[in-house]
Amino acid sequence: MHQRPTPGEILAIALILLPLIAALPRLRDGYSSEWSQALISLGRISGILGLAMMLVTAALSVRLPLLDACFGGLPRMWRLHRRLGFGAFMLILLHVLLLAFAALPHSLSMAVALLFPPLAEWLTWAGWLALVTLVVFLAPTFQFFGPIHYQNWKRLHLLSVPTLALALLHTLPPLASPWPWWLLATLAALALLWRKGLSPWLARKPYRVTEVSSLAPDVVEITLLPERRPLRHKAGQFVYLSPLDDGLATGRGEEHPYTLSSAPGAPELKLGIKALGDASRALQSVALGSRVLLEGPYGAFFEQAAPGRKRLWLGGGIGITPFVAAARALAADPGKNEEVVLCYLANRPERAYYLEELADIAARHPSLRLVPHYFSERGPLELDFLEQHCPDFRERELLICGPPPMIHHLLRLLAEAGVPRHHIHTEAFDFL
C-alpha cells in the first residue's frame, strides 16, 4: 500500500543521485583484480550515496511553512527524513565493509591497514570520527536504547554538524567533481542555520493564553490570542508551541507539535492537547495570561484528498482535532456544500471530547453527518459498521487521524474491503 511520490520526494532522490553521477568516471580506480575492483566500486558507490543521503536528510530538517506541502505534509516529510537517515547509516557501514573486503584477497594486513592506517593519514580517521558521531546521535532516533527522551534527542542532533563536516573532509579530496557536494552541503548548512539559529527569533509568533477548557481529566483545549500579526492556517494544520509560563512543572521553552482545532480565520487559535508526556501533561494547568510562542502552521492533511469527492472522516483519540477544525469551518460557512460523514472512534462516551459540539454542528449543517463508535460497546471498528452507516465508503475519499494502532487497524480493514490506497489519507500522532 504505497503512496505516490510527491514533488519534494522526487527532488530529494534526484539530489541524492547527483554526486554519484558526477563521480562515475572515478569509480573504477582501485585494485587490479576483477573481484577487488567490483568490491571497491560498490564500496565507493555506497559511501557516495550514504553521504548524499546524510546531507539531504540535514536539508530536510529546515521545517519551513508551505515547503512541507511539497512533501505531502510535515509528518510525511519527517518520515522521509528518518528513512534517509537510517539508509545513510546502513550504506556508510556497508562502505567500510566493502572497502575492507576489497583488500582482503591481497592480504589481511592490507585490509587492516586500509581500515586503520597511520595517524598521518588523517582523512581516513576523519571518516572514522564521522561514523562514531553518526552512531551517537542516530542511536536514540532508532530507539536502540529504549524510548526517545525528547530534549536529549534534540541536543544529540547538534552532533550532525561535525559529523557532516568530517564526512565531507573524508570524501572530497579523491573526487574530480566536488561541486555536487558543495551544493548539498550548502543546502544542509542553510537548513541547519535556519532551524537552530534563525527560526527561534524570526519564525515564532507570540500569543497569550486566554482560556483553558477541560474536555476530560487529561485533555484540555487552550485558547490563544495573538499579540501581533496572527497566524493564518487551514483546517488540519498544526503548530509547534513553546510555552513560557514560569509556573510549569516541565516543558518551559520546549517546542512540541499540537493540532489546531479552531476554524480557519477565527480571531483566536484553539489547540486540543492530551497529556501524552511530561510537557503536554504540564500544559493541562498552564496559567491564564501566560505567553506562548507558535511556529507554523504546517501540514496538508485535507489537501491530500481529491477535490469534489464525498468524504469519510475517521478520527480517534486526540486525532479528532483536525476534524473539529474542519467541522467548525463548516459551521462558519452554512452554504458550503461538502458531503461528509464523520466517524468518531472513542473508547467510551466520556472520552468523546468534542462530541456535543460536533453533534450540534451536524444538526445545523446538512453536509455533515456524525456517527460515534465506542470501543467499549462494539470493540474495534469493523466493516459491518461502515456498511451500515456509510454504505458508499469505498467510493469516498477517506481521511484518518489518530494513534498509530488505530490507523494500522483501519488500513488493514480498508484494504480487505478493496478501498484503493490512493483514496486513503492518514496522519498519525507519532513524530517529534
Can you tell me about this structure?
The protein has 432 residues and is an alpha/beta fold. It folds into three domains: 7-201, Four Helix Bundle (Hemerythrin (Met), subunit A) (Up-down Bundle), CATH 1.20.120; 205-298, Elongation Factor Tu (Ef-tu), domain 3, CATH 2.40.30.10; 305-428, Nucleotide-binding domain of ferredoxin-NADP reductase (FNR) module (Rossmann fold). Helix content is 44%, strand content 17%. The protein has helices at residues 7-23, 34-59, 74-103, 108-115, 122-138, 150-156, 160-171, 179-202, 278-282, 321-332, 355-364, 375-378, 383-389, 404-416, and strands at residues 205-216, 219-226, 238-243, 256-259, 269-274, 291-298, 311-316, 340-346, 368-374, 397-402, 424-428. It has a six-stranded antiparallel β-sheet with strand order 4-3-6-1-2-5. A five-stranded parallel β-sheet has the order 9-8-7-10-11, with helices on both faces. Helix 11 links the parallel strand 8 and strand 9. Helix 2 (34-59) runs antiparallel to helix 7, helix 2 (34-59) runs parallel beside helix 8 (179-202) and helix 3 (74-103) runs antiparallel to helix 4 (108-115). It starts with 6 loop residues before the first helix and ends with a strand.
Task: Give a quick set of tags describing it.
432 residues, 14 helices, Four Helix Bundle (Hemerythrin (Met), subunit A)
